[in-house]
Specification:
The chain has 568 residues and is an alpha+beta fold. The protein is built from nine helices and 34 strands. Strands 2, 3, 5, 22, 24, 25, 26, 27, 28, 29, 32 and 33 form a twelve-stranded antiparallel beta sheet that branches. It has a six-stranded antiparallel barrel with strand order 10-14-12-11-15-17. A hairpin with a 3-residue loop joins strand 32 and strand 33. The chain is elongated. It starts with a helix and ends with a helix.
Amino acid sequence: MAEQTIAQETAAPVKGQPKLQVPKKKNKWIKQFVILAVIAAVVALIFSQCMAGGKQILAGNYLPAAAEQREMTVAVTGPGTIKPNDSYKATTLVKGEILTAPFEEGQTIRKDDVLFTIDASDVENSIKQARTGVEQAELSVQSAQLNYDSLVRTRNDNTRDRQVKANASGVINKVYVDPGDNLTAGTVIADILDRDNMKLTVPFHSADAAGFYVGQPASVTVGGTAEILYGSISEISATDSVGPGGTLVRNVTVVVTNPGALSNTSTGTASVGTAASSSSAAFAYNASKQLVAKYTGELETLNIKEGDRVTDGQIVGQFKEKDMQDQIDAAAISLSNAKLSLRNAQDNLQRAQDSLDDYTITSPIDGTVIEKKYKAGDNVDPTTATTAGASTYMAVIYDMSRLTFDINVDELDVVKLKVGQKVRFTADALEGQSFTGLVEKVNINGTTVNGSTTYPVSVTVDGDGSTLAQTGLYPGMNVSANIIVEEAGSVLCVPVDAVSRNNTVLVAGDGALDEKGNIVDPTKLVEREVTVGRNNSDYIEILSGLTEGETVYIQNSASSAMNMMMGG
């Protein structure tokens, strides 16, 4: 009934009464509020779960590591390739038939042992021809030298003979030529008389003269005036002659100074000691010579006239010079060309002789023959070896007395290295085996690529190379080496990746871990400053800031990268 009444009232309101306001949308509002509350609760739940899941995902990006005591070895690492102590690949620069190859693979070879001899008949013929060329060139040099020397000597002789020199001291008695005359060698130019000194040649008894000597004092008595002049013996005849009355006499010449009145018409006698000349004789001028030309040509100058006084060797005139310089210059050029030809011939001979050495191939090292490519009877030709598919080398020799390898060390590490440091290494091909060695050389000739510089470090392997090869360590094998810089002993360490560049580590703060020690909130991880010491490729020493057993956290880069790829 009620429901009916309500329906009627609603359907037919009384006229004149106010309209009843029924809240028709009130129920809808309630429903919407409830729906929104439910949605908010669901979103809050989902957000809470997402936050928890996100923290779990972030927590998985960190790996725990304990600070603990470890035996630390500081080392510099790097790869290398095993090499023999020395090696030699026998090659040739010449072609021909191999006459001998007196060795086999595996044989021990000593330094300078002959490996191959190649037929050298062609080069031997070349050497003979080169020797003949040298001999011919030597003869040409000799001929050119003689011609040049002759011309120079002639010029020098001409220079000397062109000068007109007095051949005695005295007075010019007569001049026969004038400047400008053309003379031939031997022509008389002038007479020279020595009037300052007079000589008297007189006979002495042979018995007396036998006791005289040149330079012995003597006196002369001038006939008519009885004036006595003093001089010396200048000449004694070597033979006797018959004098007046049949006595044997010997002529003796005495030279005295002319007081001025003597002439070649004056006479006198001479005395030597107590002996007197057997007769008198006429005085003669001490020098009476003719000055003759020694050169053929035009007399250019003559600086004397009759009555002039000259001394022996005095230059009194000169002939006009004949031009020989052009001939001498041409001879000098010919000589130079001949010497140049000789040097070329000698060089050709030397090259031919040197090339003969190329036909005998010897070993420059002690070692073992690893490979032999050619034998006696084979023909070798280095110019066609590559195109013909033949080997470019004839044999390989290794000095296996020791093994070595080089590693390239970064510029930041090379300062830690020095000769004599121990090296431990493994070979990629020899699993489970390790070897040792020593640093032999730290080369400071670095190589820079893209702003980074590395330096080659040479390592000598411990042990005999041949013995090591028997264990399987062969030249050419790749190795991984650790150069021991320091044996640090037991020190507090954490992994190298745990320490950032500013020397901090991540440790758990309040709320970062649950009761089991698992990370529940990585945002609560905090940085702690530490003091670091030595390190190797895996661990770094902690000097302060951590105690043994504390846990540090390392960001797992692989996990982070995976989360990024999955959109986490």
